[in-house]
Amino acid sequence: MAHVDIEYWSDPLCIWAYVAQPKLERVLDEWGREVRVTYHVVPVFGSVVQRFRDGKWAAAGPRGRAETTKRVAKNHGFDVSGACWVEDCPTTSWAAGAALKAVFAMEAAGQIPPGRGAKYQLQMRRRFFDENQNVARRAVQLELAEALEIPRGPLAQRLDDGSALAALFEDHERRQRVGIQGSPTYVFDGGRAMLYGNFSEDVLHATVSELVRGLHPEAIAPGTKC
Predict the structure, then answer these.
(1) DSSP string, 117-154
(2) How many angstroms separate the CA atoms of 212 and 60, rounded?
(3) Is the peptide bond prior to 62 cis by the omega test (within 30 degrees of 0)?
(4) Which is the CATH superfamily of the domain at 4-219?
(5) DSSP-derived 3-state class of residue 193
(6) For residue range 207-225, what is the model confidence (pLDDT) as tens digits?
(7) pLDDT digits (tens, 9 = 90+) for 16-53
(8) What residue spans define the domains of the chain?
(9) Residue 194's beta-bridge partner residues?
């Protein structure tokens, strides 16, 4: 069966990816049989320490970042405190990203059911933004996996032997080749179209609708909308 291929790129510590999640879920609810999503990590926050020390967040500091996070979430209907940047702040998104890549690799290898990687990614963001847990910590990553019935042993092995980090580096290299600017970004059908940042749901729907229309013109009535 033909599919529209979507590469979904995001950083596990990105508030914009967190608030945009419902857009992706509604697209999958409508076009789940026609689209195939592969998940990639774009670790925007390679060094959170550097960002606070002399980078983009230096002037506002952790509390300023917390207020920005809280404001962005509130503007999109979410209630978060932003304390994730103050109480036990991750030093990098690479650590959480490696755990994500490990889980997606386990899914690809048939060690866990299809779709479990996407659930792990969503729950990781909720642990970070809703529960203010430091998802860079191995203990948090493994506990979350256990809660989703993802075996701890194979996940820990991929983190220990470096294969998860290698997969994350491959995403990093592909990001540079494809030209991914940040999080979240959608790449459709190998680059036929790309959407980045805080765009409207109508734009995402229209893009996917037109690509699906190309697969099955008779399946979509003119003017169809979510």
Answers:
(1) HHHHHHHHHHHHHTT---TTSHHHHHHHHHHTT--HHH
(2) 44
(3) no
(4) Glutaredoxin (3.40.30.10)
(5) strand
(6) 999 998 887 655 444 444 4
(7) 999 999 999 999 999 888 999 999 999 899 999 999 99
(8) 4-219
(9) 187
